[in-house]
Amino acid sequence: MSIIQFGKTWWGEKWLEAFLDISYENRIPRGKSYARKGAVLNVNIKNNRIAAFVQGSRKNPYSVEIIIPEFRAAEKKSILEIIKNNGLYLSSLLARQMPEDLHQSFIDKKIYLFPRKWDDLKANCSCPDWAVPCKHIAAVICMVANEIDKNPFLVFSLHNFDMAAELKSAGFDVEKSEKESIKSVQDILKKDSYSRQSRAKLEYEVFDAIDFSLIPNMQNDILFLLSDNPLFYQGKNFKAVLAKYYKGMAGLANDFLAETYKSEEDGALDFAPFSRFYLRIDQRMNLTVSADDADCAGLKQLLTFFNHTNPAEIRNFPDSAVIFYYLYHFSLKLIEQSAFIPQILKIGENKYAIRWIPAMLNGKIKTIFNQFLGNMPEDIVLLACADNRGKNKKAKQKKFRTRMINKEQQALAIISQIIHFFSNEYCQESLLLEDSVSKAFFAGTELGTARFEQKELATTINLWLSNFYIAHKDFAPVLKIEEDGNDFSLEALIDNTQNQLEAPIALEDVLMRDEYKDMRTEALKDLSLLSARLPEIKTLLTARGPMKISIPAASFSEILFHALPAIKLLGIRILLPKGMEEIVRPQLTVHANKQKSATFKSYLSMSEMLSFQWKVALGNENMQPEEFFALVKQSSGIVKIKNQYVYIGEKDIEYLIKQTKRGARLSQSEISQALFANEYKGAKIELSKEVLDVIQELLQTKNIKKPKGLTANLRPYQKNGFSWLCKNARINLGSLIADDMGLGKTVQVIALIAKLKQEMKTKNTPGIVIAPTTLLTNWQKEIEKFAPGLKAAVYHGQNRELKMKKADLILTTYGLVKRDLEIIKKENWEFVVIDEAQNIKNPDAKQTKAVKILKSKIKIAMTGTPVENRLSEYWSILDFLNPGQFGTLPRFKEEFAKPIELERDQRKLEIFKKITAPFILRRVKTDKSIINDLPDKIVTDQFVNLTGEQASLYQNVLDDIMQNIEKSEAVQRRGMVFKLITALKQVCNHPAHYLKKQDAIPGLSGKMLLLLELLASIHDSGEKALIFTQYTEMGNLLVKALAKSLMTEPLFLHGGLSRKQRDAMVDKFQNDQQCRFMILSLKAGGTGLNLTAASNVIHYDLWWNPAVEAQATDRAFRIGQTKNVMVHRLITKGTFEEKIDQMIKDKKELADLAVSQGEKWIGQMTDEELKDIFKLEKQGLE
Q1: Where are the alpha helices (DSSP H) in 95-173?
Q2: Are residues 833 and 964 in the same domain?
Q3: 586-625 pLDDT, tens digit each
Q4: Are residues 567 and 605 in the same domain?
């Protein structure tokens, strides 16, 4: 526990000096002991009389009285003249500081501010102790010394001289200034501070543009702006306590950030408890979290959830969650960078609280904060007020109502509460909470100021923090520096911050002219505070005549690099000579050359063909190291080189010399950054013409003629993608094609495979395509359709065999690569293609390791998931394509994933895009270069195999019902055929559908597995989808499957709903971003609905009536639709679904018949025709 010290300032110590000559040596130590333990119960000062009660050994406290000599009128007049005529004395007192020179000025006039000896005072105590002063009097003297420390005006008051009132008469209102500088919660939350001016909807692009990496580490700057040993804290230096706190909080934030990258095996977190949550603050700015779900544990549970939420997921949540998520990560970054500061608020009579807010004295932090405000709805946080309307005195429970507050205070309430949460977490592990001040700062407890020794606490704390808020006032200092020959001059001006068009006012005018008297107090007080960082201001304040002083050039660099940045941090405007706004520091960079004998063969050999030489970068200018060292020889500080000011530091030069002696050697990732981002560790690099030509060759895609036998009619962007794949394959550069779903990634890759086959001079081994099981059939179909000349062998099933000699490519699954790795890894594959490449995102998974073992010079990965939203998951894919390109996973997370995903670092994102440009191709449906190439509606048939369970059930149902059909009569027969169609459709949907079970396990249905994979991709792309089924029962099964597998509650629109329910459901789907999927029974959703929020339509089961199907699709594809609509038709391969669908496509008359009769025409077939159509083909088996 810290020991309370008395007389911590020189003026407080002077007050105590009068008692040092007392012969009763134990009186003062015992008096201090009494004061420390709280025995002084009450102190009252009136005129020059101190009255107090002190608890002694008896039951009743002792009465103490101390009388100090009054100043005579002449003495008061002299004191006032001395202070008024010296700007430094006046400004210091206004800032509650007393210059020692002022004391000496009084002595010179024979005015004694402090007692010179004990006999100068009169004192008595009601205790029986015969000695004067007794320990009780000494205790009161010590308590008064403590308050004199905090408020030097008290010394004058003890002589019955109200200095504050006298200064007010002279135009310096001290009490008003101090009172107004502490904000009250009532003022912050008053109704007229709220105005309606928010957006109707969140604009996610605004959040995408917020760059947390711009937030600097501010611990040193913040501590530099605070004085040592603040007087409100009785113990060790509170500034040191705060430094420890900042360091500990930053470590805690880093621990939380490290938890953000949660491994896959930890599973998904459930947002359900917070699907609807509410943020409320009370009249004391305490924020609470509540939710509809009774199991919600409040703020801690909410923060835990958002700490593990991937940025790509956040758009699925309600507006309140989106705002909270980004403010949470903003707060985490503030804590990590120690970029938050305390603010004291008045919360009641003699009651105060400390809250922590962003350090908006930094312009970048203020800009980020304002970006949030510009995109915040107006009702994220509401104020909970006691409802006194119709108050019933007998009511035991208080009622509350809510009202709006301004958006700035909403955001600050969230940020402050998050910081307090981490503060409480940290303080549980530390020893910071020793006293009421520490508890107020670090635990958010209330700070009382009713007692005598507490009265100055709030003002003293506010004064200590006032540097942070100087620029927030109506009038703020401006410092003007001009060149003065070889030296510089300093002048102080005062700026009216409320009128930016008004020129700053000279300080001498503020002090001399009556029209500016309202700003004098604040102006002098603020300049006094600034003088602690720039002592030259003290000279300025004592100047006679024009207030401008000269600064020698020799000492200017110290001011420029240390004092002025700290002052500028406060928001104070500094007017510098032209050319000094940017001072350049020398940096190391490289010049890249192509070695004379080297030829460009492949991407991986680039490091062998390039050579690098060091250069020194000065801004955008690069110099040879020898030239630079010659220019700066025997120079230090600020020098002018090539028309720019350059700072030459001794350590900088030592580092440059040491590095340039080593020679330039760059790693593969550094080479990529140097060549494609055109920078080396932040400095611009130089590239020779030969190197530029190589880069151009890598980046430029020339049109390549499509292979013979390719039947696909490639759209322009697909031709470009095909050519890009070919170019990368020729230089052995792995390619990630990450086009949006529906843009035809598969056909572009098939075109490449056909081209590779065409160009084979000699017989080579086939390539391998690895895909999820649900996509194998699609690959087969696409190859048959677009490249019938390619021989594709499927490596799958119980009797699988690797038929290398008879195939151009092998189709298999991720699971089989892992299971049969010993067989598959023996081959030197012509190419390795992985579809849905996110299947290898976990680098530690056996499946990932198996895929990476496969040998091939040509590697291609395919995915439709936005790359930059899941960078931490994409390292494994990038490492598969081009091993070593991005170093280790921890390094990749630190260098790219964390800055881009969590900090929204726009510069890092731009660098990442540049260095991956050669091997990542992503086009989205909204790209201007693509949208004109796309039809408004793209229909895709997606084929999937039956699972073993489905195939077995399909065959049993078919055999059973066909026997009855063969025995039945005409009318009965048509009914039996319809029953067969219905039964087999249900089996193809899911066995649980046919068996009338309440839950459907996805793994038992190929169609359901494919649907879930499709919806996961749609979900990741931030899009919406309509899922049509003919059957209400299947719709109910899908609702449960989506809720369990995708952690989302889909809407289900079916015939059992009322008109009101339908309308509410449509409105929710159209306007609620969190609502991503709607399941519709075909009949209920077929007409009269406008669902243009969906850009995807999935027909889970087919109606075989083109008109009905088109009508359903048109729920999304209709007037008002601004996006291209992707239509997915799910068809089980080898079953009657595939055959009937193909028959309708092939024969127009059947299509016309289907429109007019639906499925009735099938019932008119012969038994043999039915057997042929319904027969389960071998290729339909899993």
Answers
A1: 100-108, 135-150, 153-157, 163-169
A2: no
A3: 777 777 777 766 565 566 556 666 767 778 788 777 888 7
A4: no
